[in-house]
């Protein structure tokens, strides 16, 4: 089992969509929300994903395909 | 000896012992070194600092390491009064903190010197980083000095010329076939699997503290006072927050008067998530895809962006983004007025200063310090079209004809 910390940023049109629920249900990934801020026109969620490495990869690819931005936590590692 | 006490989560306050770990396991927010300031205030003084070495290690009491420092001669770089540039911009008390003059030509030496010293304390025999330039060179140089093995990870599309400054120290250069994001992901996974000191991942809280020394030096070199304005660049935002922390700590320890410095953050318009949030009045940093010639500040998802934003806001400062063209103009302006050849990031800072000065944000009679973080020669390619020599025949006549000179 692998773990990955990520931040999802939701555009306005996806705020009402149960993206995290579907990620858990359809990709067999355990989602564990640690921090979040969601309002009527924007939203971000910091969460831990746990599951098989391939399932996490597939899940993240699906979340991206829905229009959600996925970024690593706690930020970029590559520096100048 | 060090007065560092614990690592504390900047968000939820959870405390951890001084181990190689960078994020809170509860909320995934960054951890920060906290000190026993009460004990520190009893031992530290201006005299004690001034009797120390002429390097960043004169502030060793305020840094989180006990081991003998891995020092290649970093810090105590010049703070020069920039009268020519000041005249151009209408600023009477302008100073430049010239961190081009560190051993590997950037401010990263400050952070890496502390992080590599900590790596030895933690018992690591290998240090690593992911970088496209300045950080790579600094890590490789410090590893050489400390007899540690160094791994430097780079994206595969990087021009090999960019890595000469690191390769000379003979680290293991690992070219990752994939995107910038792929390098980020691989390095995070390597940190979890290998017992290495990853300079800006698991050693990041210590790495961060090295940057405070810029703040200390500015205050000491101004005769133990904080400036009214600081203009500094931001990539991850770490340096910007630590300049502020450095000034704030000196005031807390009563080495300077209470700080009333307005902190202005400068970014390239092609990679300005912190400036965007400042201008939008939001608290959340929306990551962006970087597109700028100022590669050393091209970070789209800044780890300390939120905290840099808070410093700019709470200090009564601000934020400024400039185009690549303005940055190149800024490089020329700095070189042609003060004789300092900075990298493109320096151009971003000078162009931002110019904007801030002309908008009236800066009171021209008060002390303003701009922070120049890296030297120009490493990224000469951004200036390829400036060399335009006048050709003459090897005769006096030809010279005088071309330049209309008479003896």
Task: Please characterize this protein's 3D structure.
- The complex is a heterodimer of chains A (about 80) and B (about 400).
- A four-stranded antiparallel β-sheet of chain A has the order 2-3-1-4, covered by helices on one side.
- Chain A is of the alpha+beta class.
- Chain A has helices at about 20-25, 55-65; strands at about 1-10, 30-40, 45-50, 70.
- Helix content of chain A is about 30%, strand content about 40%.
- By secondary structure, chain B is of the alpha/beta class.
- In chain B, about 40% of the residues lie in helices and about 15% in strands.
- Chain B contains 15 helices and 13 strands.
- Chain B has helices at about 35-45, 45-50, 85-90, 110-120, 135-145, 165, 180-195, 205-210, 210-220, 240-250, 275-280, 305-315, 325-340, 345-360, 395-405; strands at about 5-10, 15, 30-35, 80, 95-100, 125-130, 150-155, 170-175, 195-200, 230-235, 260-270, 320, 370.
- In chain B, α5 (about 135-145) links the parallel β6 and β7 (about 150-155).
- In chain B, α4 (about 110-120) packs across α5 (about 135-145).
- The model of chain B has no long low-confidence stretch (mean pLDDT about 95).
Characteristics:
heterodimer; A: alpha+beta; four-stranded antiparallel beta sheet; globular; B: 407 residues; six-stranded mixed beta sheet; four-stranded parallel beta sheet; 15 helices; 13 strands; 38% helix
Summed up, what is this model?
The complex is a heterodimer of chains A (80) and B (407). Chain A has helices at 19-27, 53-65, and strands spanning 2-10, 30-38, 43-51, 69-72. Chain A is of the alpha+beta class and 80 residues long.
| Spatial order of strands in the largest sheet of chain B | 4-5-13-10-11-12
- The helicity of chain B comes to 25-40%
Distance between the termini of chain B: 67 Å
Distance between the termini of chain A: 33 Å
Report the biggest beta sheet of chain A as strand number plus sense, adding barrel if it closes: 4 strands, antiparallel
Give unreliable regions of chain B as ranges. none
Q: Which stretches of chain A are poorly predicted, pLDDT < 50 over at least 5 residues?
A: none
Strand content of chain A: 35-45%
């Amino acid at each position: 089992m692998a773990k990955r910390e990520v931040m999802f940023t939701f555009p306005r049109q996806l705020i009402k969509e149960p993206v995290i629920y579907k990620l858990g249900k359809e990709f067999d990934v355990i989602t564990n929300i640690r921090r979040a801020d969601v309002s009527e026109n924007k939203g971000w969620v910091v969460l831990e994903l746990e599951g098989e490495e391939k399932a996490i990869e597939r899940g993240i690819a699906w979340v991206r395909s829905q229009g959600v931005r996925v970024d690593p936590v706690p930020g970029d590692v590559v520096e100048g | 000896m060090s007065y560092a006490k614990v690592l504390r989560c900047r968000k939820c306050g959870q405390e951890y012992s001084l181990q190689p770990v960078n994020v809170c396991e509860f909320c995934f927010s960054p951890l920060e070194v906290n000190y026993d300031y009460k004990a520190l205030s009893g031992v530290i003084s201006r005299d004690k600092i001034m009797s120390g070495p002429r390097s960043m290690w004169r502030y060793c009491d305020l840094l989180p390491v006990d081991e003998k420092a891995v020092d290649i001669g970093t810090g105590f770089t010049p703070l020069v009064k920039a009268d020519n540039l000041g005249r151009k911009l209408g600023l009477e008390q302008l100073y430049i903190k010239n961190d081009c003059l560190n051993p590997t030509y950037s401010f990263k030496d400050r952070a890496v010197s502390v992080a590599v010293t900590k790596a030895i304390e933690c018992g690591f025999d290998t240090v690593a980083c992911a970088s496209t330039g300045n950080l790579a060179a600094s890590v490789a140089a410090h590893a050489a000095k400390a007899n540690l093995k160094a791994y430097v990870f780079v994206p595969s599309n990087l021009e090999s010329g960019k890595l000469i400054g690191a390769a000379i120290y003979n680290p293991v250069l690992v070219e990752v076939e994939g995107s910038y994001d792929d390098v980020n992901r691989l390095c995070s996974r390597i940190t979890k699997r290998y017992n290495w000191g990853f300079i800006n991942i698991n050693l990041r809280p210590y790495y961060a503290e090295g940057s405070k020394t810029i703040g200390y030096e500015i205050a000491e070199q101004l005769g133990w006072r904080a400036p009214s304005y600081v203009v500094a660049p931001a990539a991850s935002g770490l340096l910007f927050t630590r300049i502020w922390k450095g000034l704030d700590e000196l005031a807390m320890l009563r080495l300077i008067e209470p700080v009333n410095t307005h902190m202005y953050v400068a970014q390239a318009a092609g990679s300005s998530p912190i400036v965007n949030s400042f201008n939008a009045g939001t608290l959340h940093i929306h990551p962006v895809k970087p597109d700028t010639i100022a590669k050393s500040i091209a970070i789209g998802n800044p780890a300390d962006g939120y905290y840099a934003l808070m410093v700019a806001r709470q200090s009564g400062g601000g934020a400024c983004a400039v185009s690549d063209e303005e940055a190149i103009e800024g490089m020329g302006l700095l070189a042609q007025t003060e004789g300092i050849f900075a990298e493109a990031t320096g151009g971003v800072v000078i162009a931002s200063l110019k904007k801030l000065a002309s908008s009236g944000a800066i009171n021209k009679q008060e002390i303003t310090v701009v922070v120049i973080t890296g030297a120009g020669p490493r990224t000469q390619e951004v200036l390829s079209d400036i060399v335009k020599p006048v050709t003459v025949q090897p005769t006096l006549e030809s010279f005088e004809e071309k330049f209309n000179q008479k003896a």
